[in-house]
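B., you asked whether I could sanity-check this one before it goes into the benchmark set. Here's the sequence:
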Amino acid sequence: MSNKVILVVVDGLKYATALGHCGFLEGQVESGKARRWRMRASLPSMSAPCYESIHTGLDPADHGITANSLLRPSTVDNVFGLASAAGKTTAAVAYSWFSVLYNAAPYEPVRDQETEDTSKPIQYGRFFDDAGRTDFHLGLPSDADLCAQVDRLLGRHRPDYLLLHTLSCDSVGHVYGGSSWQYDRSATVVDSTLGKHVPAWREAGYRVLVTADHGFTDCGYHGGTNDDVRDVAFYDIGHPSPGISDGAVSQRAVAPTVLGLMGIDIPAQMKEAPLD
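And here's what the prediction gave me:
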């Protein structure tokens, strides 16, 4: 049995929008190929705190990154570091903040944009940033470009753990709000793009997990406690018991779930049980 995992984090995709506008992902559930949970994002429901919670199994109050402005290298056990220490190959196609969290700070594009260094927690990285952006939705790579980067890394390095992170929904949500047709369309675009690539990733032996860091308010913000910013979907494509789980689960469960699927010992700090 393969123990390779791809985790897709669709930045800013709220639960209701995933269910209403992500036909590929919902089709995987309906056809018996995936399981879906409703997941509660950590607080504050902001990107950097949630990125760290996803990869450490800790709340921001415990891992210490409690605001985007407090971005810094992770100081606790995390999925990338634990996988690398276990002899696994790691990769990421993601926003530059992940490079800061798990590889090096500050982020220096010439050094870090294309990372190929087996001594680092993220051994093979393709990172993008927003330097020079004049608007939230301009200057970012498309979902298609990011998935192409993933395919190249899979072909070249066959990583055991790969993170794909896209900012398309988040960037549109900040401009138009979480109830806009533009936001809904951005969710459908990323979903359709995944629909073109996930079957091949599954064929290559990967368990594919898809979730979000946080949701969105109608006025284009996140960070608080309301359901629209805390509720996100978590899809496990390839789960042996497909369907829909009752109730809500914590975002702290992502890290132990990934480690469990990879056959890596789960550290004591990760107190949430893996999703099964």
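One thing to flag: The first helix runs from residue 15 to 21. Otherwise nothing jumped out at me.
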